[in-house]
Amino acid sequence: MKINQVEELTGITKKNIRFYEEQKLISPQRNPANGYREYSMEDVKQLSRIKLLRKLGIPIESIRKMESGEMKLDDCMIKRVHELKETVQSARMMQTVCQEMLDQTAGFDKIDTELYLAEIDKLEKGGTQFMNIEQHDKRPSIFAPVFFAGITILAAAAFILLLFYLNSVEPAPFGVIGFFVIAGVAVCVGVIIACRERIKEIKGGELDEARNY
Question: What percent of the chain has pLDDT above 70?
Fold first, then answer.
């Protein structure tokens, strides 16, 4: 079956299906006539297993080890249960601190930051995991795609202008000039489209792709 059918059966995006193939978690056969991937029901079952385990927060590497026999499912689940218990415990500690602030703080400008940060520091030394603000606050910026898109467009525009200048000094065949002008315009249009799509992704939130795990 084709990838569109697999996507419909499993609910996994084509992008993630291809990613799992890159990670060697599935190995669809190739149609010798046209080279297209031909997915089997076993591939669908494997993708469903992967989807279940990913929903539970199991890393790709652990799935690979279980598939190869290096790790048993029981060992993986015991490890994950332990991780989740630690997460729950940390969440309870954060809840406790939040409740204390709710009960004892009159307003934003009245927060006793030294008191609560000292309490959090003590809890972290005891194993409680609070939010990593450097990671949590790290969000993709639209500056980079806009900046590089602008540089690329300016470079393409400068190239086209230089081309016209050189042509005025020493005329070249119309076909050659036309080819390079069209190529430059195509680059600009492609960069604008890519930049626009990237900005949409950033503003709408990054997709929950398998690469993020």
Answer: 88
Tell whether 196 and 152 lie within a shared domain. Answer: yes
Residues 6+ apart with CB under 8 A from 180: 159, 160, 163
Q: Which of 180, 133, 127 is nearest to 157 (CA)?
A: 180
Please give the helix or strand (H or E) that residue 43 lies within, else none: helix 41-55
29-30 and 37-38: which strand pairing?
Answer: antiparallel
Mean local confidence (pLDDT), 171-181: 81
Start-to-end CA distance of the chain, whole Å, equals 28
The CB-based long-range contact list for 195-201 (8 Å cut-off, 24+ gap) reads 195/145, 195/146, 195/149, 198/142, 198/145, 199/142, 199/145, 199/146, 201/140
Does pLDDT of 213 surpass 60? no
Share of the chain above pLDDT 90, in %: 39
Rounded to two decimals, the pTM is 0.58
CATH at 31: 1.10.1660.10
My answer on whether 110 and 82 are in the same domain is: yes
3-state secondary structure of 154: helix
| Cα distance between residue 45 and residue 43, in whole Å | 5
Domain that holds residue 42: 3-68
Q: Does the pLDDT value for residue 101 go beyond 50? A: yes
State the average pLDDT over residues 151-155: 90
Tally of domains in the chain: 3
Beta bridge partners of 37: 30
